[in-house]
Write a structure and sequence with these properties.
The chain is mainly α and about 200 residues long. It contains ten helices and no strands. The two termini are about 10 Å apart.
Length: about 200
């Protein structure tokens, strides 16, 4: 049980994908302008992370590795993720059209979101079993949600400040992201200390 909590909180805080691992930066910067679209994107990414883990772990463990085809891991994982994103896109278009239109072009970007591919590959690289992989995927998704919500709040405040002309827009956004990222690096070692 303690191992699962360490994996969960490590995914949320210590190895936060956009802020520490720098995975999934494109949607992180693109969709974090509004809180509702940031939350919707994060939930969709979390769902795809968990579904991709649930499908790719057994494929790797029972099909690729035993047959000596582990070198096809990245290719197979990308195909699985692309198929899952198509399913999510179809579901949102039919049942949650407001979220589908709010996400716009960023929804298909989940297919190329390296955070989703990263969690599936890192689960294998870390040697996690199926349950640990699912907990890690959920933790990484919740970390992605936390980062998106925090940054959406920061960006809403940035719109109302009087910044120098050269800093307005993307430069100020990148500076704010780097400061937020530096604050998450401070969690390194905290999770191990809590559960030891």
């Amino acid at each position: 049980m303690t191992d699962m909590l360490i994996i969960l909180f490590t995914g949320i805080l210590v190895n936060n994908y956009p802020l520490v691992q720098f995975l999934g930066i494109c949607p992180f910067l693109g969709v974090s302008k509004k809180l509702d679209s940031a939350v919707g994107m994060s939930i969709a990414v979390t769902f795809v992370m968990m579904m991709a883990t649930a499908v790719t772990w057994p494929i790797y463990s029972f099909l690729l590795e035993p047959r000596g085809l582990a070198y096809l891991q990245t290719l197979v994982f990308i195909l699985v993720i692309a198929a899952l994103v198509q399913l999510v896109e179809t579901f949102l278009k039919k049942y949650v059209p407001s979220l589908y239109s709010a996400l716009g072009v960023y929804l298909p970007l989940i297919t190329t979101n390296c955070a989703v591919l990263g969690v599936t590959v890192l689960n294998i690289d870390e040697g996690y079993n199926f349950l640990q992989s699912m907990v890690n995927a959920f933790g990484c998704g919740m970390g992605y949600l936390l980062a998106m919500v925090l940054f959406a709040g920061v960006r809403s405040r940035l719109e109302n400040i009087d910044a120098p002309e050269h800093f307005k827009g993307l430069p100020l956004t990148l500076i704010a992201a780097s400061i937020l990222s530096a604050s998450f690096v401070g969690f390194t070692g905290v999770v191990d200390g809590l559960f030891m």
